Amino acid sequence: MAFSALLAALLLAAGSAHAAMYRWVDGNGRVHYSDTLPSSYQKNGAAEMNKQGNIIRRTQSEAERRAEAERQSEQKRLLQEQNKQAQLDRALTSTYTTEAEIDLARDRALEHHKLAIKGAEIRGKAVDANLADLRTRIAQIEKAGRKVGEGLTEQLEQATREQQELKRTIQSNEEAMEKVREKYAADKVRFVELSGKQ
Length: 198
Prior knowledge:
Layout: H1 2-14, E1 21-25, E2 31-34, H2 39-42, E3 46-49, E4 55-59, H3 62-95, H4 99-143, H5 150-197
């Protein structure tokens, strides 16, 4: 009864003005009614009511606004992914007509990396031979009790750096080849899926 009287008094006090009536709950769980929403409670959300005490609009809490923003962001991300996949599908079906064509494209893409690896391996053999020769000469000089010249030390360091760089080149191309194989394998699977849908 007291609650109804309070609500009626608040509604009468509002008169015929167009000011909104708000309902909010404080930190102790008490319900409050007012024609203005305290700024300290705006982040917690509130309900705007009409003169009859019916809720006409609900203000979202900060947590609800955050959750809504995250939901919209996720929806946008999913839509972008769907659009990107549709674009990739169109490119796939317009580029290839058979699975064999995909295999041919994969082999062409791998050829560049194979040549880079072969070139690095050939050069690597020459560098390895040079390093072996340099180390033999340095060992002979040290065995004779003489000092190794700066030029010879620099040649050894340079050859060692080149050997390491060639190993990196081989490794990076092998990794790239694996990615190429994975990409074309995935393209092939998707092509078969799309072909089955048509």
